[in-house]
Amino acid sequence: MQLQERINAFVKLGEFLSQFSNEVITKKDNVEFNDLFFDGFKHQLKLAEEHNGWFTQENIRFSLKSWTETLTLSNLNKWLKPYDFQESDSKLIAIIMAGNIPLVGFHDFLTVLVTGHHVLVKQSSNDKHLLPYLAKYLEYAEPNFRGCISFTEERLENFEAVIATGSNNTARYFEYYFKGKPSIIRNNRNSVAVLTGNETLDDLKKLSEDIFRYYGLGCRNVSKLFVPKGYNFDVFFESVYHWHPIIEETKYANNYDYNKAVYLMSEFDMLENGFLMIKEDTSYASPIATLFYEYYEDIALLKEKLNVDSQQIQCIVSKGIFENEVPFGTTQKPQLWDYADSVNSVEFLISIS
């Protein structure tokens, strides 16, 4: 199978997903294999929400829309153009996926297949309905993918390299267990936003998307703010208020109530607006419904601190401060070349060809 054939198959998958990325699901006439897959995928969306209360239809649609916009011929060609693909024997690459947000492991899945390898997927039990169905669609879109994709719930065997994502504890286990194999091992990371106090209301409204999308469960969600000494949070609270319906979601509300009770009993100082608490804390990982913040006095010293702590940080959201900053409102819309933990998985997979 040639590279362009693999690319074309994912373009077809993007066209298929486009039918499900809006609030009203609309069947299109020009999408291949719709009669086989359209109704079945609607059912998988329902199962995914029933199985995992964090996977609301809104958040699943957001994920599908992001991939619809990503899986275009121009994007895929731009992503892969810099690399020299030598057609060679395919290796079996194992992927251990997280399950914190819908289709969180799809980029790894795509990267393994588009680089010409076979994939063995071990999914999280929290996100097990969508990807196998999409994999089956790919096998129809490009019959040469048949035999290249497999899923397992058992112990991984006979693979030649691995990409594994987990918590800090499981990452240490992965590093030991896979020490004899080429690997990419990912652990917990969080994203931060650096504010100067000069942001517009629109900037902060965009930032609220980075905070609340997926209930803050993703590593690209902003879990902490760095703000200048004396920062006034009134404008910030005003800018995020349009997210207040989130408190009507039972799982989020339960976390909000629990964490608020813990903070009050511990007599921690905090600010809150009925659906979000902000607390001064040096940690990067904040609980659900909570945003940590930390003051800074010198932006140069803050840059040094964040550089030292880079292994704990996925994204830095700011406006004209950092070289590799992510613009407000875009953390959950990464490009294909925005690699998790800044580890280039395409280069990794080409190196083991």
Structural commentary:
With 353 residues, the protein is α/β, with parallel strands linked by helices. The protein has two domains: 186 residues, Aldehyde Dehydrogenase, Chain A, domain 1, CATH 3.40.605.10; 128 residues, Aldehyde Dehydrogenase, Chain A, domain 2. It has twelve helices and eleven strands. The strands form two sheets. A six-stranded mixed sheet has the order 8-9-10-7-6-11. Strand 8 and strand 9 form a beta hairpin. Helix 1 crosses helix 6. It starts with a helix and ends with a helix.
Report the sheet with the most strands, covering strand number, pairing sense and barrel closure: 6 strands, mixed
Radius of gyration: 21 Å
* Estimated helix fraction: 25-40%
The structure class reads alpha/beta
The helix tally amounts to 12
Low-confidence stretches: none
Morphology: globular
Q: Which topology of the largest domain does CATH recognise?
A: Aldehyde Dehydrogenase, Chain A, domain 1
| CATH evolutionary superfamily of the largest domain | Aldehyde Dehydrogenase, Chain A, domain 1
**What is the correct CATH architecture of the largest domain?**
3-Layer(aba) Sandwich
User: What's the structural domain tally?
Assistant: 2
Strand content: 5-15%
Distance between the termini: 15 Å
Order of helices and strands: HHHHEHEHEEHEEHEHHEEEHEH
Number of strands: 11
What's the CATH first level of the largest domain?
Alpha Beta
| Largest beta sheet: strand ordering | 8-9-10-7-6-11
Mean pLDDT: 96
InterPro entries: Ald_DH/histidinol_DH, CoA_reduct_LuxC
Protein name: Acyl-CoA reductase
GO molecular function, one term: acyl-CoA dehydrogenase activity
Organism: Seonamhaeicola sediminis
